[in-house]
Design brief:
S-adenosyl-L-methionine binds at residues 29, 31, 56, 77, 102, 127. By secondary structure, the chain is of the alpha/beta class. It has twelve helices and nine strands. Helix 6 links the parallel strand 5 (122-127) and strand 6. Helix 6 (133-142) packs parallel to helix 8 (173-181). It binds S-adenosylmethionine.
């Protein structure tokens, strides 16, 4: 049998055979390291009863591994030039479906019904295109897809922001959004050398265990996230000053009273508030009719 796709030699062979040229604008950095592929697939906790959704299969290095670990694999690839290559690389795998399209535009609920109806759980497993990491993850989470976990290779700084706890400079609205839906866990950091071509940034694998119910309960989710955004609007400002810009100067005194009534010092900065505190804050602001 042919060598695995995720090796320097076979990847170079496939690229040469099809005359494939990398598009930087699509975040194309292909994995050529078996150990890293193992780490990613192991973290996803797959078995034959489970499904795997891959975003951006490239020439199929991870797809091939997923086809061994899961009962069903669906892979969404935007680059038309890769579709025939994937067709050949994955030819003898009837339980793998390649879908040509942009993950940000596809109806993922419908795709889930079509591809994973028989699965007992689905994981998203991907080496993501770094230019669209956050929009892709937010789409997966906001659509409340029935996911058990998400295991993705992303830019190291973004992984650290997702997993950050209150108080540090990495903690921001992305940390709150991700932790509202998931329990994040850094799996490993990864050197440049495991990719062709090598990216200019450091990478890490992060596992997001999707919660059955959000971390905090809020009466109005959209409003909760607007309050979070507003609290981090200008990081050097206090919570009081950021929120004043949000609700209007005339409400300054009311705002001070409201913060004191829920035990949050108005002089604190947004980056020190826990999810529970943001939930309490947005709930009282909503009650106050803001
Ligand atoms: N999974 C392969 C691997 O690990 O070797 C390739 C990973 S590469 C970092 C990202 C892949 O995502 C590329 O194949 C790229 O064409 C694809 N891609 C980029 N934007 C996409 C989008 N919006 N929807 C689907 N695929 C996309």
């Amino acid at each position: 049998p042919a060598a695995e796709v995720g090796t320097p030699r076979r990847t170079k062979e496939i690229i040469a055979k099809y005359g494939f040229s990398f598009k930087k604008s699509l975040g194309q950095n292909f994995l050529i390291d078996g150990n890293v592929l193992n780490r990613i697939v192991d973290a996803a906790e797959l078995d034959q009863s489970k499904g795997a959704l891959e975003i951006g299969p490239g020439i199929g290095a991870l797809t091939e591994r997923l086809s061994q670990a899961a009962g069903k694999v669906a892979a969404i690839e935007i680059d038309q030039r890769l579709i025939p290559i994937l067709g050949e690389v994955l030819a003898d795998k009837p339980h793998v479906t390649v879908v040509h399209g942009d993950v940000l535009k596809l109806d993922l609920r419908q795709l889930f019904q079509q591809q994973f109806a028989d699965c007992e759980g689905v994981s998203v497993v991907a080496n993501l295109p770094y230019y669209v990491t956050t929009p892709i993850l937010m789409k997966l989470l906001e659509e409340r897809l029935p996911l058990q976990n998400i295991v993705v290779m992303i830019q190291k700084e973004v992984a650290e922001r997702m997993a950050a706890k209150p108080g540090g400079k990495e903690y921001g609205s992305l940390s709150v959004a991700v932790q509202y839906y998931c329990e994040p866990q850094l799996v490993c950091t990864v050197p440049h050398t495991v990719f062709i071509p090598q990216p200019n940034v450091d990478s890490a694998v992060i596992k997001l265990k999707v919660r059955n119910t959000p971390a905090v309960s809020v009466p109005d989710e959209a409003f909760f996230f607007r309050v979070v955004q507003a609290s981090f609007a200008q990081r050097r400002k206090t919570l009081m000053n950021n929120l004043t810009s949000f609700v209007g100067k005339e409400k300054r005194d009311e705002l001070t009273a409201l913060l004191n009534s829920i035990g949050i010092d108005p002089a604190r900065r947004g980056e020190t508030l826990s999810l529970e505190e943001f939930a309490a804050l947005s709930s009282s602001m909503l009650e106050a009719g803001w």
